């Protein structure tokens, strides 16, 4: 796996690079701002871009905007955002802008090395990894809930899907059979009006509906 890191803090950038390399993940570029991220993405076409939200020159949302642009430059580029904050506007743009390979974690999660590396691999493979706090804040921003038709059990399954868990992992978490989870997932797709499609990943669309609630 080949990764580009965009993080303005030298200590964190170096630390994350060392952590990934210790896990056998190649870091092809480690940069400090959004412009350099886009240059690195163009040059290396990495398997994943690991991006901070707030970078020079204004330290507001340059990282997220660069991540969105990077996915335009390389359609389908997996992007994992690391931040101390939940930037709601651009977080939704990033999540809705692609059908797979997106993640948004708070920086405190890096402290759990196993969890962080698992998230990196999951997103690089086209999955999702969304922090609990990010989910909570994005849900609060919505004025209406399109998920009212779901049962509490189906909502629980969808919440675990949003965390990036597979059906098997959800079954283990809920102490139910794989078949029961598959039935819940099928009901979720049906109630959210997500028909089978070769152009979209229904699982990711369901998660995005859960996050955006729009």
TrEMBL record:
What terms describe the molecular function in GO for this protein?
Answer: DNA binding
Stored InterPro entries = CheY-like_superfamily, NreC/VraR/RcsB-like_REC, Sig_transdc_resp-reg_receiver, Tscrpt_reg_LuxR_C, WalR-like
- Annotated Response regulatory domain residues: 2-122
Keywords, alphabetical: DNA-binding, Phosphoprotein, Transcription, Transcription regulation
Please list the GO biological process terms of this entry.
phosphorelay signal transduction system; regulation of DNA-templated transcription
Would you say which domain of life the source belongs to?
A: Bacteria
> In the record, which positions carry 4-aspartylphosphate?
52
TM region positions: none
Indicate the segments forming the HTH luxR-type domain, all copies: 143-208
The name this protein carries in UniProt is Two component transcriptional regulator, LuxR family
Could you tell me which species this protein originates from? Actinosynnema mirum (strain ATCC 29888 / DSM 43827 / JCM 3225 / NBRC 14064 / NCIMB 13271 / NRRL B-12336 / IMRU 3971 / 101)
Organism placement in taxonomy: Bacteria, Bacillati, Actinomycetota, Actinomycetes, Pseudonocardiales
């Amino acid at each position: 796996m080949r990764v580009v890191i965009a993080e303005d803090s030298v200590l964190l950038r170096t630390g994350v690079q060392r952590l990934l390399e210790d896990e056998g993940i190649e870091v092809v570029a480690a940069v400090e701002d959004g412009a350099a991220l886009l240059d690195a993405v163009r040059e290396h076409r990495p398997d994943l871009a690991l991006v901070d939200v707030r970078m020079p020159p204004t330290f507001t949302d340059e990282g997220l905007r660069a991540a969105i642009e990077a996915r335009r430059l390389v359609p389908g580029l997996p992007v994992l955002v690391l931040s101390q904050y939940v930037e709601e506007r651009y977080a939704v743009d990033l999540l809705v802008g692609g059908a797979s390979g997106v993640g948004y974690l708070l920086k405190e999660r890096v402290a759990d090395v196993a969890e962080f590396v698992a998230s990196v691999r999951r997103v690089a493979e086209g999955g999702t990894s969304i922090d609990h706090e990010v989910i909570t804040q994005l849900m609060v921003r919505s004025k209406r809930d399109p998920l009212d038709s779901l049962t509490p059990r189906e909502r629980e399954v969808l919440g675990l899907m949003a965390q990036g868990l597979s059906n098997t992992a959800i079954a283990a978490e809920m102490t139910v059979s794989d078949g029961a989870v598959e039935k819940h997932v099928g009901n979720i797709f049906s109630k959210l009006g997500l028909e089978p499609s070769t152009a979209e990943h229904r699982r990711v669309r369901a998660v995005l509906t859960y996050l955006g609630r729009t």
